[in-house]
Design brief:
With 395 residues, the chain is an alpha/beta fold. The chain has helices at 20-23, 48-60, 74-86, 101-112, 128-135, 157-167, 187-199, 222-225, 239-243, 258-271, 278-290, 292-316, 342-352, 379-394, and strands spanning 35-36, 95-98, 118-121, 139-142, 146-147, 153-154, 169-175, 203-207, 233-237, 251-254, 321-322, 330-334, 355-356, 358-359, 370-374. The protein has 14 helices and 15 strands. It starts with 19 loop residues before the first helix and ends with a helix.
């Protein structure tokens, strides 16, 4: 069989499908007719091999409690993907199946730190990091990224270590590659930050959910940047971003250290949600085993979208700037040159351009004046969104 779902120009109507991206504008305070390019899922149909595997599963027509074990093909599919794409040899003993990465972050915070402990992040960063820290009764600390003269974000190692010491930080949530700024951290950057964590006995939760979207450089698995990092690291991966499977709730957590793994799994058991769904594991296995052609074609399409957006923003959106992301399918656009304050910018984007984007302020104070735009959609949709911005800025 060959892959059937390779038409990424095709517009699929997602309205009235209980889709968070398209069906919940009013509930979130937006006009019903906004064009949404906010939440990080794709407007593409996933691999036909996933489609076929799920169709076969539905015909079985019994959907009881389910699980996987080494030797049944699931872990082999996951580990094979990691080996082929990230040169990473994983061990079945490290592997914990979990519904989602945010669920895993919350479990790690509760299971590996105590109420009131400090957890450090690097803003601007994926906003659930901060909210999960606070909602679970911990102290949020940010060592903000530095944006240099070349518009590239860097880690502030001195500030990072200073804040760890001052706040007695117990955990670091790393975004690798970084959402929303699009950095693909190098091995040297990860070793420097990791050695600070190791010296101060800080556990690292490395969110690597965007690792399959790298445009410049190569993804470095954090725990493999230095062999000693295995003792302090929880690594989160998932097929959800790569194959557009977020609604099936299947992620893969790798914890080499047995003590960390035990504490994490004990917390997982306390939640009462410790078994995967049969749909999630079936889709993930099919994607990792047979979705290679779809994945490579999809990546090539998104790369073209990013290049298209970069040129459009440079040439036609006055007062804005976008540095091409090294990784992820998310555009991080600087609107500060428009001269609009936060309220005026929101008014222009939502009510004049009729767009639903992610305001940079939700990613932390360091994101103010920016907007995050999802480029994983048919180019006609991306073009329409940028043309709406153009008309709104020039009117």
């Amino acid at each position: 069989m060959t892959e059937r779902n390779l038409d990424f120009d095709r517009i699929v109507n997602r309205k009235n499908t209980r889709c968070i991206k398209y069906d919940f504008a009013a509930e979130n305070g937006y006009p019903e007719d906004v064009l949404p390019l906010w939440v990080a899922d794709m407007d593409f149909r996933t691999s036909s091999f996933v489609e076929d595997a799920l169709a076969e599963l539905t015909r079985h027509n019994i959907y009881g409690y389910s699980d996987t074990r080494p030797g049944d093909g699931f872990f082999e599919a996951v580990s094979g993907w990691m080996r082929r794409h990230h040169h990473w040899e994983t061990d079945p003993a490290w592997h914990v199946k979990i519904p989602g990465v945010c669920f895993a972050i919350a479990a790690a915070i509760r299971g590996l730190t105590a109420p009131g402990d400090a957890v450090i992040i690097q803003e601007p960063v994926y906003h659930p990091f901060g909210s999960l820290i606070l909602q679970n009764g911990r102290k949020k600390v940010s060592s903000d990224l530095i944006r240099d003269a070349e518009k590239t974000y860097r880690m502030d190692y001195d500030d990072f270590e200073k804040k760890i010491i001052e706040n007695n930080v117990k955990m670091f949530i790393l975004c690798n590659p970084h959402n929303p700024v699009g950095r693909v951290w190098t091995g040297e950057e990860l070793r420097r930050i990791g050695r600070i964590c190791a010296e101060h006995r800080v556990i690292v939760f490395s969110d690597e959910i965007h690792s399959d979207f790298v445009w410049e450089g190569e993804h470095q698995v954090f725990q493999e940047a230095d062999p000693s990092f295995r003792n302090i690291t929880i690594t989160a991966t998932a097929p959800s971003k790569t194959f557009n499977l977020a609604g099936l709730q299947q992620s893969n957590i790798f914890i080499p250290d047995s003590g960390l793994r035990q504490s994490f799994t004990e917390e997982l058991h306390r939640t009462g949600l410790d078994e995967p769904t049969i749909f999630g594991i079936t889709a993930a296995q099919a994607a990792y085993e047979k979705g290679e052609t779809w994945y490579e074609t999809m990546k090539a399409y998104i790369r073209k979208n990013i290049c298209f957006a970069e040129a459009f923003i440079r040439d036609r959106l006055p007062g804005t700037e976008m540095k091409k992301p090294e990784g992820t399918y998310l555009l991080w656009v600087d609107f500060r040159g428009t001269g609009l304050n936060a309220a005026e910018l929101e008014e222009m984007i939502v009510h004049k351009a009729r767009l639903w984007l992610n305001s940079g302020s939700v990613f932390g104070r360091a994101g103010e004046g920016f907007q995050r735009i999802n480029a994983a959609c048919p180019q006609s949709i991306l073009r329409e969104a940028l043309e709406r911005l153009e008309r709104a800025l020039l009117s």
